[in-house]
From TrEMBL:
SUPFAM superfamilies: P-loop containing nucleoside triphosphate hydrolases
Coiled-coil spans in chain: none
Any one Pfam family match given in the protein's UniProt record, by short name: ADK
High-level lineage: Eukaryota, Viridiplantae, Chlorophyta, core chlorophytes, Chlorophyceae
Enzyme class, first EC level, given as a word: transferase
HAMAP family the record matches: Adenylate_kinase_Adk
EC number of this enzyme: 2.7.4.3
Source superkingdom: Eukaryota
Protein name listed in UniProt: adenylate kinase
Family as reported in the entry's similarity comment: Belongs to the adenylate kinase family.
Keywords: Kinase, Nucleotide-binding, Transferase
GO MF terms, alphabetically ordered: AMP kinase activity; ATP binding
Amino acid sequence: MPDAPSRTAEQGAPRKRVVFVVGGPGSGKGTQCDLISRDFGVPFFSAGELIRALIASGCPEGKQLQDIILQGQIIPSEVTVGLLQQAMAGTQAETVLIDGFPRNTENRTVWASQVGYDCEMVLLFDCPDEIMMQRLAGRNQGREDDNEETIRKRVQNFKSQMAPVLDHYRSIDKVTTLRTDRPIEAVHAELSALWRQHFAPAAKA
């Protein structure tokens, strides 16, 4: 099992202004993170992409993660958070976007205990279920997991697992909601204005 960074290493790492970007599959998170990263020089990291990259590297740690997935098990939150910590440690930027995390309460609590500080904001990409399903179906490239039943389950799983996470962050006034059932340009314009207001002065490439 890949090890998470040690507590000593965590304490020595500079604190970042972290923005969690959450939303159902097909809500547009990746597209908008790409645009904000391009326009404001803000790095963004996806837990899923970090895991896939580690597996693709063929290193021993990646092979262990692949075995976990093949056995139908869930990768421990400690490992996911550790990968995000390593990615954040590799940038000098004060502000970072984290796409698709946390996915559930366990992710959130492990982040708090392992990283030692919370996010600055949670950006919730709010998109109707049917729109997300249409977008995901439109991406269908013959993959087995792109059928309607599986897509609907993915959307419902996201909503059920995220509900307590969003309740927690709403209780401390950290959730900002963006409607994403609109053209990409409209969402990007609103998100850019929000970013300038809250983060642009602190964001450094």
